[in-house]
Amino acid sequence: MPSNLILFNKPFRVLSQFSQEGEKSTLADFIHVPEFYPAGRLDFDSEGLLLLTNQGALQHIIASPDFKMPKTYWVQVEGNISEEALDQLRQGVELKDGLTKPAQAERIEEPNIWARTPPVRHRENIPTSWISLQIREGKNRQVRRMTAAVGFPTLRLIRYAIGPYSLDNTQLGHWSYTEPTDELSKEVMNFEAQRKRKTASSNRRRSGENRQLGFQRNKIPDGEGVAERPTRTKPTRRTHRK
């Protein structure tokens, strides 16, 4: 039986959705499986790993920063990135919407990956460098804003991994079924059990409120009496002569 989790290597300039938006390419151009939807997003101008699922709880857990699934990116930046800039990324960077959480950041050699179409613009007099950056939150275009904030704008952004899932053995534009890990399956079970408890508690509270409301409707207000029923007069019994 197919799994309820799909791993997809999204190309550059593909929308992370199935619905059409102008002339832009979408997931519908690559994945033809009904009832699967992205668990989180990957920007139009970013590449790499995207997970899709047909299970609501699994989608919520993967996409939500509350469950702290780390996301690892390979980032090509403009300039020869310094150790000082990497330290800033590790400690947290002040953005317009607040301070980022500490990240794992290290310089790496250029990864052996597919060529981008179109390619990154090359400048002879400006070098580039690659870093691996792992974050556990999901601010809008966070990685690009983080590298820009430390003085090294992002030129190319590839999401390599989400938690235990990675792009290894998945070619660009291809997808495959994959199994949820035991830990992820446990998170799903706990999430669904918690949701059921909340629903049951909400139903009990609503039922109690309805009973209380019904009691108040039937309660006789202070100072009011009960209307007396008219008494029926019994018919006079006639005595019969024997």
From TrEMBL:
EC numbers on record: 5.4.99.-
Biased composition (Basic residues): 195-205, 232-242
Region (Disordered): 194-242
InterPro entries: PsdUridine_s_RsuA/RluB/E/F_cat (IPR042092), PsdUridine_synth_cat_dom_sf (IPR020103), PsdUridine_synth_RsuA/RluA (IPR006145), PsdUridine_synth_RsuA/RluB/E/F (IPR000748), PsdUridine_synth_RsuA/RluB_CS (IPR018496), RsuA_PseudoU_synthase (IPR050343), TruA/RsuA/RluB/E/F_N (IPR020094)
Biological-process GO terms, alphabetical: pseudouridine synthesis; rRNA processing
A Gene Ontology molecular function term of the record: pseudouridine synthase activity
Domain (Pseudouridine synthase RsuA/RluA-like): residue spans on this chain: 4-149
Pfam families attached to this UniProt entry: PseudoU_synth_2
Bias-annotated ranges (Basic and acidic residues): 219-231
UniProt entry keywords in alphabetical sequence: Isomerase
Family: Belongs to the pseudouridine synthase RsuA family.
PANTHER family for this protein: PSEUDOURIDINE SYNTHASE FAMILY PROTEIN-RELATED, RNA-BINDING S4 DOMAIN-CONTAINING PROTEIN
Protein name as catalogued: Pseudouridine synthase
Annotated organism of origin: Marinomonas ushuaiensis DSM 15871
